[in-house]
Amino acid sequence: MNAPNDDVILRVEDLTIRYEKGRSIWGTPRYGQVVHGVSFSVKRGETFGLVGESGSGKSTIGKAILRQIPVLGGTIGFDGETVTDWPEGTTPLAYRRAVQVVFQSPRLSLNARMLARDTVAEAVHFHLGLQGRELDERVDRLFDDVGLARHLGDRYPDELSGGQQQRVAIARALACDPRLVICDEAVSALDVSTQAQVIALLRRLQEERGLSYVFISHDLGVVRNLCHQVGVLQHGRFTDIGLTEDIFERPRSDYTRALLDAIPRFPGRTAA
Length: 272
Ligand code: ADP
Ligand code: MG
Hints:
By secondary structure, this protein is α/β, with parallel strands linked by helices.
């Protein structure tokens, strides 16, 4: 598996995942395989885009990296560790800190009854054990880092815009100084101008912190804008994988070409 000093932070090899799809009348489980031998790697400080239509298996791969679901076959390596060797339900705290996630809907992922400030403070307290002034200072800094005015900490999620809510979710994810963040459709629910701002934020955080992202999206325009490498997923298999430019300029598969043809134009890289 990849050594800690390797420039690859996450290496997924031949990943296979199935879900139980009910049982036969004899009680034997039936399975539906949704990920079929997927391999890719994410470099330190870079973004790997997982793109594909709804149901192609993107979130399933994200969940496997986060160890929320079991894998049937293949390996996931992170920073010198073989994650898939760990028995189910025994994810080291260090890994849970190192790999964080930001979802599409901050309204669902944020606690509606918790002030924005407390949401971030709770994560800082849990992961770093900080209290009192140290905790306050850390939370202030996280608000600054994600471009959220500190006074907005006194609001509930419903009193924040979609972009502000997503900044709270990003601040919470950053509370434990992760090295890899899985962004699962993290900008998909935002309007175009807010989307551009959050993408610029993700890019700035990447530059400042050397963060790596697995960026899951059904939107090829967004993926082109942010990702260094891209894998195009269809029915749980890559139809194309490689450097973003190559995929967009010279797609190999008909499926990828069809996806590209479906978008009228690509926005260029936006400034951070
Ligand atoms: P995507 O994120 O690309 O839209 P998903 O990874 O969520 O796709 O889903 C891939 C496939 O797995 C879909 O066919 C979906 O119906 C199926 N699936 C997802 N979650 C489950 C589950 N918990 N149990 C059974 N099937 C699931
Ligand atoms: Mg999904």
